[in-house]
Specification:
Layout (H helix, E strand, L loop, with lengths): L1 E3 L4 E3 H58 L3 H9 L2 H9 L5 H19 L2 E4 L3 H10 L11 E5 L26 H8 L3 E6 L11 E2 L3 E2 L15 H8 L5 E6 L5 H7 L2 E4 L23 E6 L2 H11 L2 H6 L10 H4 L6 E4 L10 H16 L3 E4 L5 H12 L5 H6 L10 H9 L2 H13 L5 H8 L6 H24 L4 E5 L19 H8 L4 E8 L2 H6 L8 H10 L6 E7 L5 H21 L1
Parallel strand pairs: 4-5, 4-8, 11-12, 11-13
Antiparallel strand pairs: 1-2, 3-5, 6-7, 8-10, 9-10, 9-14, 13-15, 14-15
Helix pairs in contact: 1-4, 2-4, 4-5, 7-8, 9-22, 13-17, 13-18, 13-19, 16-17
The structure holds ligand LS3WMSL6.
Length: 590
């Protein structure tokens, strides 16, 4: 048979050859594509393996070095037991050497990371800096000789900031970030880099490069995240001051689960330049940087030392507001709002008791406590998801292309980041009908992305309206501050955070409204709390999971959050210090 096109004729044979050529080209392209994918994934796996080995080797080398140059156990333990104020005083008056303090903390950090895997690598330049500190004469800077640990996503010259993602291996940072520069200028010695979960958008603690960090109070449980390594290292006594980041609770969740203090400042109060975030462009609910410490004095010292002209000069977007001692040291009685339940899922009995006990302390100290109802938490959660996943999670999926997805991140990655919108809707339907919870659907649909600029502007308006509503509620009650649970529950078994992820509402609320929030350890889970857990209401799927996963948590730390309007960090710290002092006095008298 012959086909006649306008100027030439095509017979069967030609048609057949064309089909064969097309099929061959197509299968070549397909196999090329498949082979390229396999090759890329292979290269990535090799890169991950090499980086992991380098990290282990560097930690081991530091351990070996300390065997020869370390301190005696007694001397080391005396230093490690010092609260921040005493450590600072002794370094200032010269009765402690910076090098001894560094060696004490290096050796403790290397010791605890063997079991807990909280350190990703030591910062080798620390030794040189400590020696320089000890040779210094004249007036000492406030952080003189204080070792500080840094979450891995803080840019440090010469080191990678991977955020647990293979794509960023072998990209050494050209410079220290603004906080690191300011800390060094103030005499601090960055000495360890700490672990985090892959992408940092989960409150788990594992990534394929550096592995899984465990809880210092129960290694079968997670330390929270994403500043997992910081919470764990400080909680285990291997660091006295550290720094992390927080977009939805990543400073406060690990602080709560590991029993340490932290402060998430208002975004803008201190510099956020030079930290690795996957979705830096999502500025409506941006990431905060902030300190974690063993005690409130550590947080105060960190803030005083950072809020100085050096930082304001390095990052001119930061308003030059120095630390205001007049607010921190004020004794004026305050009106403080409190809640135990975000209005979405109740906090477990231990967390509720934590807030109750802090309330009693504050009332005894002369403050007025008023019950506060959080305005529409479903809206806050939806806004959070719209703001951080507004691109339909493309930034996240691009960052993880060819990467190994960590087992602890797989469900989040699949359902929130990768699934097509129809599947998100089906999952949302499941949560609503079987899980008796309408909120996940809103979050999942939000994570499918904002479809137009006008819809995006609508989100901006909604966010502004929600922030105003919150402010008006506080004004209506004439509130100066708020206290609320450190989180919905204490540390749960490793890898299970996704099953309870709605609990993030307890922390990300304060990111959505951009209020400074501190977290303070106030109690531990008791046998009585465990008994009361039996009556924990389990209306939703999340609540059922919380009840199940919270069993066996006696002895785990419980924190309370302290919150104030934007730029009132000093007020937050004042209240935290007041409660910390009262708890210590109470312990001494009991
Ligand atoms: C399956 C749907 C669940 C919907 C309900 C819950 C909302 C979940 C929102 C997504 C989870 C985000 C967790 C964030 C953890 C902390 C992140 C953070 O602060 N990162 C800091 C990065 O520097």
């Amino acid at each position: 048979m012959k086909f006649k096109f306008s100027s030439f004729e095509v017979d069967d044979g030609m048609l057949h050859s064309a089909a064969v050529i097309t099929a061959a080209t197509f299968s070549c392209l397909m196999s090329g594509f498949v082979l390229q994918n396999i090759w890329r994934k292979y290269i990535v796996r090799q890169r991950i393996k090499r980086r992991r080995e380098e990290s282990k080797l560097s930690i081991q080398k530091m351990g070996d070095y300390l065997m020869q140059h370390g301190l005696s156990v007694d001397k080391r333990n005396i230093i490690l037991d010092m609260p921040m104020a005493e450590l600072q005083r002794k370094l200032q008056n010269g009765s402690l050497k910076a090098l001894d303090v560094l060696r004490a903390y290096q050796s403790k950090a290397i010791e605890v990371t063997k079991d807990l895997n909280c350190v990703v690598e030591p910062i080798w330049e620390a030794e040189e800096q400590a020696i320089a500190c000890d040779f210094m004469t004249g007036k000492k800077s406030p952080l003189h000789g204080i070792p500080v640990s840094l979450k891995e996503n803080y840019h440090v010259q010469g080191y990678d900031s991977t955020g647990g993602m293979a794509k960023f291996i072998d990209c050494p940072q050209p410079d220290d970030n603004v906080i690191v520069k300011t800390l060094k200028e103030q005499g601090a010695i960055p000495f360890m880099r700490t672990n985090l979960p892959q992408t940092m958008m989960v409150y788990e603690s594992s990534n394929p490069i550096y592995g899984e960090t465990r809880n210092p109070h129960d290694p079968k449980r997670g330390p929270g995240g994403s500043s997992s390594g910081e919470g764990c290292l400080i909680g285990a006594g291997g660091s006295v001051l550290g720094f992390g980041t927080d977009i939805g609770g990543s400073l406060r969740i690990p602080a709560h689960m590991c029993g340490v203090c932290c402060l998430k400042p208002t975004v803008g109060r201190i510099s956020t330049e030079g930290t690795h975030e996957v979705h830096k462009g999502a500025t409506l609910v941006p990431g905060a940087t902030g300190p974690l410490s063993r005690d409130v004095d550590g947080l105060v010292l960190a803030m005083k030392s950072l809020l100085v002209s050096h930082m304001f000069e390095l990052d001119r977007s930061v308003p030059p507001i120095p630390f205001r001692p007049e607010i921190y040291e004020d004794h004026r009685p305050l009106r403080i709002g409190y809640f135990h339940d975000i209005g979405y899922m109740p906090s477990v009995p231990a967390c509720e008791r934590g807030v109750r006990e802090v309330r009693e302390i504050l009332e005894k100290n002369g403050h007025t406590l008023i019950e506060f109802k959080v305005p529409r938490v479903d809206k806050a959660l939806e806004l959070f998801a719209q703001c951080v996943f507004g691109d339909g999670c493309k930034t996240f999926t691009d960052a993880l292309k060819y990467d190994v997805v960590d087992p602890s991140f797989k469900l989040t990655y699949f359902l929130i980041h990768q699934a097509p919108e129809w599947l998100k809707r089906v999952a949302g339907f499941f949560y609503r009908t079987v899980g008796h919870d309408p909120i996940p659907k809103k979050v999942l649909v939000a994570a499918a992305g904002i479809k137009s600029v006008s819809k995006w502007w609508g989100v901006v308006e909604d966010l502004q309206a929600y922030r105003k509503k919150f402010e008006m509620e506080m004004r209506a009650n004439k509130l100066d501050a708020i206290i609320s649970p450190g989180f919905a529950y204490a540390a749960i078994p490793l890898g299970k955070a996704f099953l309870t992820v709605g609990a993030v509402a307890y922390t990300n609320l304060y990111n959505v409204i951009n209020y400074p929030a501190g977290s303070l350890p106030v109690t531990k889970v008791t046998e009585e709390d465990e008994k009361l857990l039996e009556n924990y209401p389990t209306k939703t799927l999340y609540a059922k999971n919380i009840k199940k996963l919270s069993k066996g948590s006696v002895g785990l730390p419980i924190n309370v959050q302290f919150v104030a309007p934007p730029y009132q960090e000093e007020l937050v710290l004042r209240l935290m210090k007041e409660v910390e002092t009262s708890i210590k006095l109470g312990e001494r008298h009991s």
